[in-house]
Amino acid sequence: MPARLIDRRPELSADELITALVPPPRFDAVRFSTYVPNPDEPSQAEAVVDCGAFAKRVAETANRKPKSKLRALFGGGDEAPSGPRGLYLDGGFGVGKTHLLASTWHETPSPKAYGTFVELTHLVGALGFAEAVRRLSEHRFLAIDEFELDDPGDTMLVTRLLQELISAGVFVAATSNTLPDKLGEGRFAAADFLREIQSLSAKFGVCRVDGPDYRHRGLPDAPPPASPAELEASAAAHPESTVDDFDALCDHLGGLHPSRYGRLLDGVTRVHLRDIHPVPDQNVGLRLVAFADRLYDRAIPLVVSGEPVPLLFTEEMVNGGYRKKYLRAVSRLTALARDAAQPS
Q: Low complexity composition bias: which ranges (predicted)?
């Protein structure tokens, strides 16, 4: 019988939550030199330069005389040389912002941390605010991927956390997503980010990364869903793969904090989902967005039966307030389905 994700209930200790704050496997080997700017989008080449300069400032500060812990506690961190301590990468999905963020992380000196917005909120909930500040203040640099504004409480929590960390001398870089070619509509832009962290806005520089979604530039659409027999054959041919009924997985994800979805996939080589269909409501949809992000982070190919991947979210959902998330998820899942369709 093939393994099932629904049989896994991963747990993370407080220490594991900290040590797990590193780039996911897909971005473990990326560097500025491996980022390929779109020649039609000059902002992409400029972003490589800006991110490299930011990483250099982190390194330069690390080489200066360290501040005392007492000065850090009361906001006496050294001033960053020739630039702000924060960097916000502003752009649509599929332009390589996470590649640039991870490259910046790789170029900065240790100790450093890399996590998603969801992972940070979970960290604070697990450790408590004061302990999370203490642990993260020991780092020189914190990278935050997928910064979200959907929950005002979480936004305030992370903003307060960043205030404490920047006061302690920690550099911070963050990404989020905007809709390509959709100025205004559903857009998460630099203006929104800076408004929500207004007390910190002067501490952040903005780096624009424009362009179309590279994951589908000149590539075919998602492959058609597999037949039940094809799905089972794929699972049998790939050791360490999993097979789950779509509805059962959706129910299982509802019982896990999204910060555990990555650990749920540890050691998995390919995910198979039977009978996918448009999701029934927003809560299920947003859990699947987080699951899709962790699948993509780990470059795990996806095989599905049932409805095509692009129909996973209803037209009403895609045109609603979480439009950017659903489009990103479809983009990433399509790329993973395409990976699974490639000859082994």
A: 228-237
Residue-number span of the structural domain to which 111 is assigned: 31-212
Total-model pTM = 0.78
- DSSP class of residue 307 equals S
CA angle 328, 142, 185 (to 5 degrees): 30
For tokens 């896990």, the residue is 256
Which residues are within 8 A (CB) of 245 and not within 5 positions of it... i.e. 6 or more apart?
Answer: 273, 274, 275
Distance of CA 210 to the CA centre of its chain: 18
- Mean pLDDT, the chain, as a whole number? 86
End position of a domain, from candidates 212, 246, 268: 212
Structural domain count of the chain? 2
Same domain, 259 and 194: no
CA-to-CA dists, residue 226 to 82, 90, 216, 340, angstroms = 55, 37, 21, 11
Distances (CA, A) of 106 to 59, 86, 111: 11, 17, 11
Contact 100, 35 (CB under 8 A): yes
Answer yes or no: are the C-beta atoms of 102 and 174 closer than 8 Å: no
Question: What are the structure tokens assigned to 74, written together?
Answer: 């009361």
CB neighbourhood size of 125 (10 A) = 14
The answer, yes or no, to whether residue 67 has pLDDT greater than 70, is no
Identify the helix (H) or strand (E) that includes residue 249. helix 246-254
Residue 192 confidence (pLDDT) above 70: no
Q: Report how far apart, in Å, the C-alpha atoms of 123 and of each of 131, 148, 298 are.
A: 10, 16, 21
Kind of pairing between the strands at 271-276 and 86-91 = unpaired
Q: Is 267 helix (H, G, I), strand (E, B) or coil?
A: coil
